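Below is how a single chain appears once it has passed through the pipeline. First comes the sequence as given, then the structure the pipeline wrote out for it. We keep one example in the README because the format questions we get most often are answered faster by looking than by reading.
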Amino acid sequence: MMVSNLFAQVNLNQNLVAYYPFEGNANDLSGYAINGTAFGESYSTGVYGAPNSAIVFDGTPGSYVDAGTDNRTVVDTLSISCFVRTTFDGIGDIVSKYDPGNDRGYHFQISLGKIRLAGRDGSGTYRQTGFSTTLINDSLWHHVLGVVRGDTWILYVDCNLEGAESNAVSNPDISSNAQLGFGKDVFSDAKYLDCEVDEVRMYTRLLNVDERDSLCATAVYAGIKEQKDPVQFIDVYPNPAQTKIALAGNSTLEKATIQIYNLQGQLVLESTNHGATPVLDIQHLQAGQYIIHATQDNLHLTSRFTKS
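Resulting structure:
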């Protein structure tokens, strides 16, 4: 899948109401800036390979994040995107803002290695997507996306549609004044999660197919290099880098078109007509994670690097 096609129509900041990248803290990088308070947490290497960039919950009552009670304008449309890595075979909530007493709210839940989005929308009925067919407790990073679209609840795992339920409801409303919590069920103060969690994003809109794919594809492009055939990757030196990077592949790259994308899917650098081992000037790039895609004849190579 070509990155240039994949990221054609992507704006991951539009209607973003919560963004917790967990880069050594529980700060909210959305416009709401509602920083969470983390308890009993630690941090591990995240999905993009940076140290201390994923939060680790240990499955005990003292390990969770409190992100406040603000509803963030959520009414009847919500998308929750995040990455998880676990071997947990119990029941625990990744994201929870569930308030059954008021028949409102939602929770993103792992149960026996599977995942679902569930909650209440004022109809008097417990709503859910159904559980995923994919087992996500295999110690690998997985991208999960839960969507509420009016009276329909939808689940994607690693870009694939794995659950959907729709029942006619008049004026569905999932707004909730409950605590937004990560790592536990905030309603019952139970179901604590034993899991690594990274890049939690919440939107008050549906994500288009390009946006869905760009989020989960970064796990493929930037996440677990050892699971891919080595021919599908290029090496980047140094990494992290400040001013320049050199690229080395399984073949010479003098005819390759090299593109660098940020994690919002924006093309930030393109290079052609270079040497067999290209050297690229990255001084103008902001600090952060980037994805590299090189195309040469029928060869498509992908890797990632950090600009420090």
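The radius of gyration is 20 Å.

See the next section for the split statistics.
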